[in-house]
Write a structure and sequence with these properties.
Helix content is 55%, strand content 3%. By secondary structure, it is mostly helical. It has a single domain, classed as Mitochondrial Import Receptor Subunit Tom20, Chain A. Helix 3 packs antiparallel against helix 4. The two termini are 36 Å apart. Involved in the biogenesis of cilia. Required for the recruitment of PLK1 to centrosomes and S phase progression.
Length: 150
């Protein structure tokens, strides 16, 4: 008959293999944060720039299925519960988005734009262009759950 220690080890191993252990730990951290968060203490006003930055990060987190991390960000930053409309972000950030880029978070396109060094757009003030074509090393065609396990 298996000992309690052996059962705990098997359970932990099973939960790790399924990816559930990480989710459980993240959920516990989010719940602890919510329990400790002092809502009676007013937060500083959320600036327009921080609102946009937080939204880009939230879009990235949700795309990669980091739901609990996104929920902690939303709560801690005082970000609106309802995400900002993507088209609003595109307009506010002056991003030129092609059809392929719409399937990935805006942050991927922004980073790709600067990693390329704007080689294609040599004029100053050129707008970042968000495109899947800019991500040759990322396998963005696979669902996020498959990308996360690699």
């Amino acid at each position: 008959m298996a000992t309690i220690a052996e059962l705990k080890a098997v359970l932990k191993d099973t939960l790790e293999k399924r990816g559930a252990l990480g989710e459980i730990k993240a959920r516990i951290r989010a719940e602890v944060f919510n329990a400790l968060d002092d809502r009676s203490e007013p937060r500083p006003p959320l600036s327009h720039e921080n609102l946009l930055i937080n939204e880009l990060i939230r879009e990235y987190l949700e795309f990669n299925a980091y739901r609990y991390t996104a929920s902690v960000l939303t709560a801690e930053a005082g970000q609106p519960e309802v995400p900002l409309d993507r088209q609003f972000l595109v307009k506010e950030l002056n991003i030129v988005e092609d059809a392929n880029g719409k399937s990935v978070p805006l942050l991927y396109g922004i980073i790709s734009h600067f990693l390329r060094g704007s080689k294609e757009e040599s004029t100053q003030g050129a707008l970042p262009k968000v495109s899947l074509l800019n991500y040759p090393r990322l396998n963005l065609a696979k669902p996020s759950t498959e990308r996360n396990h690699k």
